[in-house]
Amino acid sequence: MRLADLLQPAPQNENWKRTPATVATVAPKVSQLSQLSQGVAFENHFSEVPEPPASPTPDHADLRVTLYRLAEAEGLPRAIVDRLTDADLQPDNGCDLLDDAGLRRWLHVLHENERMQRGMAPPGWAQASHCRRCGSVLLWQGAPLEVLGCPWCHVRRAGGTVARPAITCAACTHQQPRPDTSDAGMHGCAKGHGLHYANATHACDDWRPAGDQQ
Question: What is the distance between the alpha carbons of residues 70 and 173, in angstroms, rounded to a whole number?
Fold first, then answer.
């Protein structure tokens, strides 16, 4: 019997006579209502669709262990991983989207950035180039000889030290060779910086890599 059937009023007609309410007539109805309400609650309980469980997030400790392993395999110092906070390893930072190759590259970028903050060129950065904002800088092999901006710009703006290449006149486009001296002797300068030995290292804001037409 449905709850609506129990609550539906009896039909009203002239032949219908109301039966007086007694314990004998009310008790069965109450018992039926109690059983029905329990059945409805029981049915609703099992008809509810449970919400799907939240996706598990990577464990910070597990990710940190993975980074230690990768740093050791790449020959990078463990201190790089030590300086990462739990907030750095949150999924919303994208760590959960990186495979081992991506994590390795991330560790190398962190290492390169830390070296640059200390005024040290990253490993393999031995090419002398000219940045129009920083002057002569060390960049990676194959980088352009003349650039509008470079990775050292943010270091310089922050007051850090920029790694400078060993500048020589022999590698500068402004060198003016003198016919009366050897290739290693003293040569003039198109920018008016006087005479310098071709292979002597010195600081010069006007230095431009040989082959650059600026």
Answer: 44
At 203, the pLDDT band (50, 70, 90 cuts) reads confident
Q: Where do the H-state alpha helices sit in the chain? A: 3-7, 23-47, 60-74, 79-82, 100-117, 153-157
Radius of gyration of the chain (CA): 41
The token pair at 121 is 């060129």
Strand order in the sheet with 186-189: 175-176, 186-189, 196-197
Sheet (strand 146-147) strand order = 135-139, 127-131, 146-147
How is residue 201 written in tokens? 């290292």
First to last CA, the chain: 96
- Per-residue pLDDT band at 52 (split at 50, 70, 90): low
Alpha-carbon distance of 114 to 166, in angstroms, equals 22
Q: Are 196 and 186 in contact (CB under 8 A)?
A: yes
- 8-state DSSP, 191: T
Question: Torsion-angle region of residue 169: left (phi > 0), alpha (psi -120 to 50) or beta?
Answer: alpha
Three-class DSSP category at 197:
strand
Whether pLDDT at 119 is above 50: yes
pLDDT in tens, 151-163: 999 999 988 889 8
CB 169 within 8 A of CB 175: yes
* pLDDT tens digit sequence for 55-98: 444 466 788 898 999 999 999 999 999 988 888 888 777 777 78
